[in-house]
Amino acid sequence: MGSAYNPVDWSALFSAEAGASAALAGLIFVAVSINLASIIKRANLVARSAEALFILTGVFLTSTLCLAPAQAPATLGWELTVVGAAIWAAATSAQLRSAHKNPFVRGPVKLLNFLLTQCAVLPAVAGGISMIAGRGGGLYWLLDGVVFSLIASLFDAWVLLIEILR
Which residue range forms the structural domain that includes residue 71? Predict the structure, then answer.
C-alpha cells in the first residue's frame, strides 16, 4: 500500500492539523464573543460564523478519523466520504446564507468565497472516494482540503474580528 493510502505515513500531519483546526475554531469563538452584538444583528454574519466553524470541524474530524489505528483503507474512505459530504452540505448551506442579499459582498468576492468553501470541503469527499477505490490520490486530497480550509477560515476570522467594525 502506497503512502497515499496509508494514514500511518500521515500521522504527524493529521496530528498537527487536528490541533491547528481546534485552535482556529477557538479564534472564531473569540471573534464571535467579542463582536456578538454586531454579529447577531445580521443573519449573514451568523451564517459566516457557522461556515467557518463547519470548515474547521471538517478538518478536525477528518484528521481525527485518519489517526484511528489499524483501519482498512476502504473503511477510512467511507468515513471520510460520509463526514466530508455532511460538512460540505453544512458549510455550503451556511456560505450561501452568508452571501444571500449581503450588501457588503459583491459578485467577485462572493465567487471567491464560494470557490474557497468548495475547495476547502470537497477534497474530503474526493479523498474518501479515492480511498475506497484504492486509486486517484488517496489522502493527498485531504492535504489540499486542509490548506484551503485554513485559508477560508482565516478570511472568515478576519471578517468577524476586524472587518465587522468598519
Answer: 3-165
Q: Which has the closest alpha carbon to 18: 50, 64, 53, 49?
A: 64
How many independent structural domains does the chain possess? 1
127 and 98 in contact (C-beta within 8 Å)?
no
Among left, alpha and beta (phi > 0; psi -120 to 50; other), residue 72 is beta
Half-sphere exposure of 52 (CA within 13 A, CB side): 28
Burial, 166: exposed, middle or buried (Cβ in 10 Å; 0-12, 13-18, 19+)?
exposed
pLDDT in tens, 19-67: 999 999 999 999 899 989 999 998 888 999 999 999 999 999 999 999 9
pLDDT at 1: 62
